[in-house]
Amino acid sequence: MMKKRYFAIPILAIALHFLLSNLLYFLVERLVLDVFHISPQQFMKYSYWGEILIYAVLILVFFTLYKLLWRKEISEPRTATNFKDVLGSLVVGFGICGISGLWIMLAEQLPSLQKSVEAMNAGAENIAGGNAFGTFMIAPVVEEILFRGIVLRSMRKFTPVWGAILISSVLFGVYHLNIVQAAYATLMGIAAGILYEKKRNLLFPILVHFANNLITMLQGFAPSEVNELISIFILIMIAPAGYVICRSLRQGKRADSM
């Protein structure tokens, strides 16, 4: 019965996020347009405030769910927040963004992926139009609570650790509903999952996600000259990111052998 319960939690949590986020978007839109009678143009201009409100509610809901699910596991070892691991998490996020850039360059050359690339670019342009802060800066918090804190942790109860990391990462990728985004989101999910599994501290995968989104947001606003520098930077970060992940895996092995 316990295994069945933990098997159902990831499915129900992802479904809750999908339904609740769409419901909140609908309610905010109706409140602004029908109750306050604000024009659609004004609503679009300041839509980032609605984004922030929606993500704040989602964070509250899923962080409460996270705490309720694991309230009895207070003795689980957890790495305290420290500068070295914070910096390492940011490096991993930048490095993953570098790999994602290479993947997108390849995808742009494949006719079968052209529509996915175009849809992804169109979405990025819409976000750059005004609501980037909520989508890129706050979304990592709720998505990491959901996919690492709830989905991955639940799956650890009935699958091996690597199975839980891989399955939760694939679900995270598929949730983006775009094959190009799904590929690099899955990769980022694996990196974030490894850090969460080894550190048991949600801050570190959140920082990986945040760093990745920060680069994407900057590339949407920066002029082409600055974008070239950003591209060089994230490509350089691939090697340090690999080192941080390998170091985390070695530390986990040493801890298991003690």
Molecular structure report:
- Helix 1 (2-35) runs antiparallel to helix 6.
- By secondary structure, the chain is an all-alpha fold.
- The protein is built from 11 helices and no strands.
- The relative contact order is 0.14.
- It starts with a helix and ends with a helix.
Average pLDDT taken over every residue? 87
Residue share in helix: over 70%
The helix-strand sequence is HHHHHHHHHHH
Give a quick account of the main beta sheet: strands, pairing sense, barrel closure: none
Number of strands: 0
Supply the number of helical segments.
Answer: 11
Q: Which spans have pLDDT < 50 for at least 5 consecutive residues?
A: 254-258
Write down the overall geometry: globular
Determine the structural class based on helices, strands and strand pairing. Answer: mainly alpha
> Which strand-content bin applies to the residues?
under 5%
Distance between the termini: 33 Å
Roughly how many Å is the radius of gyration? 19 Å
